[in-house]
Specification:
GMP Synthetase, Chain A, domain 3, binds adenosine-5'-monophosphate-propyl ester, 30 strands, 640 residues, Rossmann fold, 32% helix
Length: 640
């Protein structure tokens, strides 16, 4: 029996079309997804839509296709060959425009470069690049020859890059001499050199030129991209790969110190994204679509590269910071390219909101038709500002909930199917084929209006295929808390009209400016500083970033606390993990609040960090008595 779990009773209904499509998708998921899959070009049709051996799902088994072919070759066979694929805007103000035929030419040549360096099907390639066109081109070139790409966000440190390379055992690293960020040059090749020293699997390094810096090049290991392109051929066939062939591995933070290598396959991932993208953004031939995320996150993979290009859309790709050289840069870009769909994060909106409406009014934003939000819950105030000032009160906002693991958008308004009345702050309803529910600690659906855990009750084609080299962790992380259901790690609530409201993470994962960071990863980094014995991390609300990081640390006996030490620890974290994990506050304390079994009482940390009280002690998640918790809370509060 399928549990559709939506209340169709409310005064808001009927959204007739959405309801019909949603119901059908859950009653006959395989028939539904087969129909959606036919919208792509397959070299060989699948034999079985879904092989579900819980918790491992294989979609479109027996089918063969190629992701690069879907995104590029398919379009150059039509009039779209002369359509713009990518409007690229560099931070210093330079720009490049690539048509689909230019993109085709480049993906072929880049694929040839990869092959000439001995890369083939199944090989892992690490991409550590700024937001330049070479990044999506390399992703597509990897896909073209069946190699598996791992994009590492260019803000990550050498250590974080090395960890990811070592986990995938990549043979090839692609980087750039440097990238621009807020007017400064980030010397990526130097960082890469440091990472490669820690990554013995890397045999070759390709360096793209962007910043005009002259890095050291190690003979026979490091190659300039432009030199390799000189020797490249102009056509490399798109290799048919099995639907279940991994397209990429992308690392994301979880509840341990080690990031998880999320594997996405080819067929299911593309089918899901192709459909979800159409439903959510109602993409049209004439749309100009801009997603301001970095390609280093899943939003960049699915919502900048694979889904839009599958549709032959014209996309904008911007290299730099939203407020550089001035705080109206984003609005300037929207005006310059006539953007019709703009997709960004609540942090971005809140940051630019601070500068006021006058900055927006300098620009003609009348091309906009639809706005989107992703990465964290959008607070009603930011929603309203976005709606009024950017969307001119005429553009609906699609608040899209999803995760690295889900591959594509799961809960969101779907104007491509039917408009539902929006409620600021709610991601509204699950997309077709997404069997979402909210359950209590025992896995039972919670009544309307009650907070619970968001779960997905049946497989969907975009779902991760596993965690790289760690099937056990995959089972434990997602499928053991509620047997038979995918655990998202998020709290949610459904209102009387059936709308979903996302309430943040239920686990030890923080969302800093929409970026996912694990508390334990940060704790490990703090403890690796020689002055520290123990550390615990919590977050406090931040008006722009949503959450900011607060560290509580105990010091070695001989060490005295000082401001200098705080700044050293801050630097140490930046070097170990990267700037996104920089704490806002560091408190040195005598001891950390722990239960008798040694578990850190995180609620106490959170309450102290945010200056709030501990709330209702009767629903304690910590295995300690009310008195113990209260005492530990008071002690810690006194210290900070
Ligand atoms: O907590 C949810 C939050 O972001 C988490 C997933 O992070 P990541 O894998 O980095 O992917 C982000 C971009 C797809 C979720 O578990 N999140 C994402 N979108 C929303 C959200 N929280 C509330 N509302 C959203 N629209």
């Amino acid at each position: 029996m399928v549990n559709t779990s939506l209340s169709f009773e409310s005064t808001y209904w009927p959204f007739k079309r959405y309801t019909e499509v949603y119901k059908r998708s859950l009653q006959d998921p395989e028939g539904f997804w087969a129909e959606e899959a036919r919208k792509l070009d397959w070299f060989k049709t699948w034999d079985t839509v879904l092989e579900w051996q819980p918790p491992f799902a294989q979609w479109f088994v027996g089918g063969e296709l190629n992701a690069c072919y879907q995104c590029v070759d398919r379009h150059v066979k039509t009039w779209r060959r002369s359509k713009v694929a990518i409007y690229w805007e560099g931070e210093p103000g330079d720009s490049r425009v690539l048509s689909y035929s230019t993109l085709y030419r480049w993906v072929n040549k880049f694929a040839s470069v990869l092959k000439n360096l001995g890369i083939g099907k199944g090989d892992r390639v690490t991409l550590y690049l700024p937001m330049v066109p070479e990044l999506p081109i390399f992703m597509l070139a990897c896909a073209r020859i069946g190699a598996v790409h791992t994009v590492v966000f260019s803000g990550f440190s050498a250590q974080a890059l090395a960890d990811r390379i070592n986990d995938t055992q990549a043979k090839l690293l692609v980087t750039a001499d440097a990238g621009f960020r807020r007017g400064k040059l980030l010397e990526l090749k130097n960082i890469s050199d440091e990472a490669v020293r820690l990554s013995p699997s890397i045999e070759k390094v390709i360096v793209a030129r962007r910043g005009n810096v002259i890095p050291k090049m190690k003979p026979r290991r490091d190659f300039w991209l432009h030199d390799l392109l000189d020797k490249a051929v102009v056509f490399v066939p798109a290799e048919p790969v099995e639907s279940t062939h991994p397209l990429y591995i992308l690392y994301t933070s979880g509840t341990t110190g080690k990031p998880k290598g999320i594997i996405h396959g080819t067929g299911g991932y593309l089918v899901f994204n192709n459909s979800a993208y159409k439903w959510v953004f109602d993409i049209k031939e004439e749309s100009v679509y801009w997603c301001s995320a970095d390609v280093g996150w899943v939003t960049g993979h699915s919502s900048i590269v694979y889904a839009p290009l599958c549709h032959g859309a014209a996309i904008v790709l911007y290299e730099g910071a939203p407020d550089y050289p001035s705080v109206d840069r984003w609005w300037d870009i929207i005006e310059k390219y006539g953007v019709t769909i703009f997709y960004t994060s609540p942090t971005g909106i809140r940051m630019l909101m601070k500068y006021g409406e006058d900055e927006v009014k300098k620009h003609d934003l009348s091309s906009l038709e639809l706005l989107g939000s992703v990465g964290e819950a959008i607070n009603p105030e930011a929603w309203q500002w976005y709606y009024e000032n950017i969307g001119g009160e005429r553009c609906p906002i699609v608040d899209t909930w999803w995760q690295t693991e889900t591959g594509g958008i799961m809960i969101s308004p779907a104007p491509g199917i039917e408009y539902a009345p929006l409620k600021p702050g709610s991601a509204t309803f699950p997309l077709p084929g997404v069997n979402a529910d909210i359950v209590d600690e025992n896995g039972k659906s919670v009544p309307t209006g009650e907070k619970g855990y968001l779960v997905i009750k049946t497989p969907w084609p975009g779902m991760l295929m596993g965690i790289y080299q760690d099937p056990q962790r995959y089972k434990e992380t997602y499928w053991s808390k509620f047997p038979g259901m995918f655990y998202t790690g998020d709290y949610a609530i459904k209102d009387k009209d059936g709308y979903f409201w996302l309430l943040g993470r239920a686990d030890e994962v923080l969302k800093i400016a929409g970026h996912r960071v694990g508390t334990i990863e940060i704790e490990d980094a703090v403890v690796s500083h020689q002055a520290v014995t123990e550390a615990a991390v919590a977050s406090k609300p931040d008006p722009v970033k949503g959450e900011s990081i607060v560290v509580f640390a105990t010091l070695k006996q001989a060490v005295s606390p000082s401001l200098q030490l705080k700044s050293e620890i801050r630097q140490h974290i930046r070097r170990t993990l990267g700037p996104i994990a920089t704490p806002d506050e560091i408190y040195f304390v005598a001891k950390l609040p722990k239960t008798r079994s040694g578990k850190i009482m995180r609620r106490i940390l959170k309450a102290v960090a945010s200056g709030s009280n501990i709330g209702d002690l009767t629903t304690l998640e910590d295995e300690a008595s009310v008195d113990e918790v209260r005492k530990a809370y008071e002690e810690l509060k006194k210290e900070v």
